[in-house]
Amino acid sequence: MNSEAAPDPGRIALGISYSGQGYEGWQSQPSGRTIQDHLEHALSQFADQPIATLCAGRTDAGVHGLMQVVHFDTPVQREPFSWVRGTNRFLPPDIAVEWAQPVPRSFHARASAIARRYAYVLRESPVRPSVDAGRAGWVFRPLQAEPMREAAAMLLGEHDFSSFRASACQSHTPVKTLHRIDIHRRGAYWRFEFEANAFLHHMIRNIMGCLVLVGQGAQPPSWMRQVLQARSRDAAAPTFSPDGLYFLGPVYEPHWGLPQHSAAYDWLP
Description:
There is one protein chain. The chain is of the alpha+beta class and 269 residues long. It folds into two domains: 103 residues, Pseudouridine synthase I, catalytic domain, N-terminal subdomain (Alpha-Beta Plaits, 2-Layer Sandwich); 133 residues, 2-Layer Sandwich (Alpha-Beta Plaits). Strands 1, 2, 3, 4, 5, 6, 7, 8, 9 and 10 form a ten-stranded mixed β-sheet that branches. A hairpin with an 8-residue loop joins strand 2 and strand 3. Helix 3 packs across helix 4. The termini are far apart.
């Protein structure tokens, strides 16, 4: 028996940005074509040993991340900047480690998050996206801001969001607390920001489908309350495209000392 004790693993948190185009979402799949697969391969290459990660919130195929947060345990000792630069050497150009920070063993990327934030970027134009294809949703009919804001306000607070829940959702409960929905426009682009304690599978994309119908005048703002109260997926609009959906990242208590902003935020409309 080896009398020398194994080193106690340290816990590292990372902030990750990525384009969801060309990937099968966050969670590892047999194909290896996911963000998690590429990140764990790069970390394992850099650390010269297998590393498994746990994320703050899984994203679907085509959904982008501006500051996904993960944590992992490892006995490997590296400076934070080395985890950033070293791991990025082994990542494809559309995935990057933005920052690294040692955290206590009590920190958990998912369980320690008190809220999660998303943005949806939507292009209103007679012409489909080109340069921004895959990075913005698209509508060709004009939208009106005030009806959408009125409809969005009906979703704030704690509700049963079953009407906006995908059939494959694994959440234990459809009851979530939606803290805010902000809607503003910059030129041809609309930006919808969502913050909640947690989200159901496809919840934002299903809400977006409803907001677009209201914004185009196909439904009145009061329809949103009817959809919510129905607690049935059949009551809501079809699921909207993933192209313009961005995971802005989790929100943590200040005492963890983790970054709340990354450079990837600054280019988003």
